[in-house]
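Hi R.,

As promised on Friday, here is the backbone we talked about, encoded as structure tokens. Could you run it through your design pipeline when you get a chance and send me back a sequence?
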């Protein structure tokens, strides 16, 4: 069973660890915890340069949605939307109209022969 330490009362945790708030872990329990869990060591993380942090900001969606990226994307998306609208109008209105005109002219030619 998984124990979620953050959901338990401090007194319950102290009883489970065989600890006391005024003294801490007893020596035997301290050695057992050290053997079971190991040392509490923090590894030093590699320092990130401020320039790299600045460049990483451009990976953010917020920059592209609201910042300078929005100005660039507006121009690209506007032309794409215009192309989509033109394609829809061409497909729905122009091509069927040309087809009707063509069929009408071929029928007229066939009737005259």
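Update: got your reply. Pasting your designed sequence below so it's all in one thread:
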């Amino acid at each position: 069973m998984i124990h979620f330490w953050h959901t338990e009362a401090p007194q319950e945790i102290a009883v489970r660890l065989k600890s006391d708030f005024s003294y801490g872990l007893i020596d035997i329990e301290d050695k057992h915890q050290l053997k079971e869990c190991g040392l509490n060591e923090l590894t030093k993380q590699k320092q990130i340069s401020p320039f790299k942090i600045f460049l990483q900001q451009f990976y953010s969606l917020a920059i592209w949605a609201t910042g300078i990226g929005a100005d660039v994307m507006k121009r690209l998306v506007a032309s794409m939307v215009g192309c989509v609208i033109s394609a829809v109008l061409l497909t729905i209105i122009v091509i069927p109209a040309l087809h009707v005109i063509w069929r009408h002219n071929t029928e007229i030619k066939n009737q005259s022969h």
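One thing I noticed while checking it: Residues 65-113 form one domain.

Thanks again,
M.
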